[in-house]
Amino acid sequence: MPVLAENHTARRRRFACGWTGMTAVAILATSTLAHGQQTTEQLQSQSQAQSALAQAIPGNPVAGSVPTGKATDGVLALTLDDAIQMGLKHNLGVILQDQSTSQAGGTKLQQLQPLLPTVTGTGEVSVQQVNLVAQGLRFNVPGFPKVIGPFGVTDIRASLTQSLINVNSLESYLAAKHNFEAQKLSLQDVRDMVVLSVGNAYLVCLADAAHVDSETADLAASKLSLDQAVANHDAGTSPKLDLLRAQVDYQTTEQQQITAINQFEKDKIALARAIGMSLEQKFTLADKAPFAAFDAIDVDKAIADAEANRSDLKADVEQVKSAESQRKAAIAERIPELSFSGDYGDIGVNPSKSHGTGNANGKLTVPLFEEMKLQGDQKAANATLTQKQAQLNDARNQVDADVRDSLLDIASAAKLVTAADTNRQMSAEALDEARERFKAGVSDNLAVSEALAQLEQANTQYIAALYQHNVAKLSLARAMGVAAGKYKDYLGGK
Q1: Which DSSP string corresponds to 386-410?
Q2: Which of 202, 271, 376, 427 is deepest in the core (most CB within 10 A)?
Q3: Could you read off the pLDDT of 42-93 as tens digits, one per residue?
Q4: Taking the model in full, what pTM does it have?
């Protein structure tokens, strides 16, 4: 019975959705499609899909959202476009990055203020009494008071402070400005990441739904084989072993259907979490995932377009510029600073008995000795600049790799879809042939059991290949930096 045991093992596979992380630009979604006795090539292909995505890991904001509204009555027909638009509005990654951008904008304004005039106004009313002896006027003159007052003083004044030469503040402002631009570009990149994350989660659910349908069809096929085994056994044309084998096949397929339905419901929860939908909301998937061939594109042109479009790469460029300005600011700490301050106001016993007064001051500040601080600031700024330049160079290589990997995955998955489709058609024919032979009493139902297992595996391989092909196209849109605006074109085949 080793052959039978082996085929039952082959049929005990599940359709699982797992989540993994990625480096640097991280925050993308992933899922694995697994079944028993997978080939090394299939596992490598799924691993490649994982390396391009990262979602629902603890602490990853792209996996979460800020839900709005309550669940509505009835069942919502959710399209892929609806899911992505909801994700772009409610996904936690977008919300947090938007606030980081606002924070960077606030920092930029703070760094700008030292370069602008600072004007303040004050109004003061006071009552004073002066002890002349306490002030040092210790003489005894008949009739001259030792205490003056009390008397009132009113002072209304405006003050102005203006930095005339401050290279350090200027470069610090430019650094904050470049950082603000980098944060805005990072927000665009996060939106692309959310499209990939939500799109992947939707495709996972579509694959789950297809797997549930496949298991339901497999269960019906197993029931048909079981009924035939019962009929043959009752007629005395087949041994009880054939009946037991058919019963085991049916129960195993029933268990697989239960597992597939459970996984489908769990993945729907993950999708709802990513787009901000109430977990109590019932919904169905309105779109399907048919196979759409992808037109071949020139690799070099695709890489050039990606380098021109990728927001994360542009953000790294701005970070390098920010680090360069910070370095210049550290060097400029040695440059003298020139500033002006002054005030003008009206002072007197009361507003009707007052007179205008004013002050004007020029100030030159020259650093004489703080060498350790100056050298330390410069070394820290140089190190930061070197790090940002290294990250930028790596990001350029990563863009190149992302495009090439996605194109390879698309081509490979397209071949897998074609091969898996042919395989499941032949498996279905083999199952019909095995049934006819068993029905005619020419052979036992071991061939039927094997054919059922092969058909189930062929269906699973086809679903996995179709999922991989669609995710690879979505990953290419992300690699090209156009996921948020053109994901439909890429999923449709472009």
Answers
A1: HHHHHHHHHHHHHHHHHHHHHHHHH
A2: 202
A3: 333 343 333 333 443 446 788 888 987 788 888 999 999 999 999 999 999 9
A4: 0.79
